[in-house]
Amino acid sequence: MLKVEFESSLNAAMAEAKRWLAALDQRPVRPQASTKEMLKAFDEELPAKGEPPDLVVSMLAERAGPGLMATGSGRFHGWVIGGALPASVGADWVVSAWDQNAGMADISPAAAAIEQVTARWVVELLGLPATCSVGFVTGGQMANTVCLAAARNYVLEANGWDVELDGLVGAPPVTVVVGEERHSAIDRGLRLLGLGSRSVRVVEVDNAGRILPGALEAVLATISGPTIVCAQAGNVNGGAVDRFGYIRDVIDGRNAGDIWMHVDGAFGLWVRAEPSRRHLLDDVERADSWATDAHKWLNTPYDCGMAICARPESQRRAMGVRVAYLPSGDDEEVRDPVDFNPEFSRRARAVPVWAGLRQLGVDGLARVVDRCCAMAERYADALGSASGVEVMHQELNQVVVRFLGASGETDEEHTRQVVSKVQDHGTCYPSSTVWHNTAAMRISVCNWRTDEEDVDRSVASILAAHSGY
Ligand SMILES: Cc1ncc(COP(=O)(O)O)c(C=O)c1O
User: Hey, which of 186, 236, 445 would you mutate to test ligand 1's pocket, going by the most ligand atoms within 8 Å of its Cβ?
Assistant: First the structure.
């Protein structure tokens, strides 16, 4: 009986998943139904009697279909969202079927071992210190939060305060130095960690969003005591990368021993895996922690982020758990996932990362990163050479453009209209933003499938919207 149930629901899932993936290139990229329409489709009383599993899966796919965004399309360029590699999608299905609790090595030796090996691969690919610890978490938000928790532990300990034992009440104040253009995940992470918004000191950035040389010294000169400096590899709009060598040198020059350097590299850190662009992130390995995502540029299905620390003991002290009913975690060779992330029970989310990396190999990953950057450059070249289009910034896989009025004047309404017309049209899906206080379109190329044809079709659609369909 059970066997039959699984077979029918998995067969239904396979049919629906194949249908969805096969249609990605043909269907409009945008959803065809609004959230309100989706609420109408789903908002009903829970049936009193159970339903056959295969019908549940088919009904789910049929109803949800119109409300899904084709984020897996090579022409989806909204926010910073990757697609999903075939091996990682397949592995993700298997993870669900296995239904492992990947919290502790004793519960699932396979999940723990795969996570440990994947962590090593990631650290090697990113060229970070081999001794780094890695926590697999839900995404960039939690990766930043875990790194900042480790940082909080370290900088307070350097000031004689054990935050894990004594909490924050009465602790020396921690100052967090951030660039004006940091991602809001940093601020939210700090709030979750009890380091309120008033602990933040904002450093001026250049036009691209990079911390300005000279600005960090000026701010640090006014600060003493426990300090965390947050840099960025990949601005969420324009892709800008901070000058890591400069930031590290300024920190080292202060010789304070209680300053931690953190890098939010949710997507940009993966440029380290592409030899011809690796130099763009020179010195990033000199930081104390790095947050990155697998579900963006590494193209694993949602969700997976990674919190990487050059000081494993700080990450472990911030996250680790030791209670009588759990194993001791004393085996040096075996890493217990629970010690590096804030969860107990959790999905084996490193498994799709392992599978995606195996599918690509070192070369394949470099090609994905290279192609995404090359396709972003292609967008910038094609749009920038059209009349009335201004490429405001292009770096790594990101492009920021705006659309001018008939006489070449700033026309924010026109820019907003172009974005929304393009989205409605459905050929591609850029998103909107505000860049340097002006409305802009942002194009993020994160998908392993995006090719020249996708870019050319999308450019044609964008230019048609600009000139009025
Ligand atoms: C630079 C940066 N940091 C953090 C985040 C948050 O990551 P996530 O959405 O995976 O939590 C993003 C998301 O786009 C990002 O671009």
Answer: 236
